[in-house]
Protein: 4-phosphopantoate--beta-alanine ligase
Amino acid sequence: EIDIPESHPRYESLLTRHRIEAGVEKGITSKQGLIAQGRGEAFDYLLGEETTPSAKRAERAAAAQLLLAEKPVLSVNGNVAALVPGEMVELADATDADIEVNLFNRTRKRMVAIADHLQEHGATEVKGLAADARIPGLDHERAKVDEDGIYAADVVLVPLEDGDRAQALAEMGTSEIVIDLNPRSRSTQHATVPIVDNIIRAIPNITEHARELADSGHEQLEQCLKEFDAADALDNAEQTIRQGDLS
Ligand code: PTJ
Structure:
């Protein structure tokens, strides 16, 4: 890790950039991932670089949905693997979910590099390499999924991607938890639970909620999910961004 003084006003942001850069160097993150990160940062800046109360509620609802799921899967791309590898493993453990690598710029080399990286961070099993099923209606590499992974999942956590797959998964009847700093992106629009927050903050927050909710009954979890309003959450995020402070 690079030496950035914690007192630096943009400490988190610089650390995040460094992780993405290191991800590219390690063959995990695509070059396009650098652009995606810049895009995310602009929204995060306008959100005040913190989790809004509305995003906090979404993160709690996401935890409830993952705990309620019969077969939850956490999807990982090159940006996610670079930014929060250990945190994804912890979330998978807390919610009994599988982890599956799914890439837009898919190459066997990157798939293997990401699976290895996740294993270095404690993952026992990483899906995605079998790629023995296809999401119908998608003509790019993200259609390739594992039959006993995303294809069979009832709930998928889909962080940081464009909207095609989110839409196709929704059409398959899969529920989606989307993490994306852009509240108007197609993926957030298709989510059952859209989380407009930086993935760096969102994943540990969901894990914390999942641990808190671990002993809750089915009804309590259902209630938690029912109280969450996706349209309201997206509206809230957009309002915060529109009032964003550019100083
Ligand atoms: O690793 P691959 O090959 O699967 O490629 C992954 C990328 C991210 C390059 C690919 O999915 C892509 O190009 O994504 P987009 O279309 O740039 O969309 C990424 C979305 O994630 C944008 O809406 C960003 O605002 C958002 N985003 C970027 N960084 C973060 C983020 N959201 C939350 N936390 C972030 N750190």
In short: The longest helix spans residues 31-46.
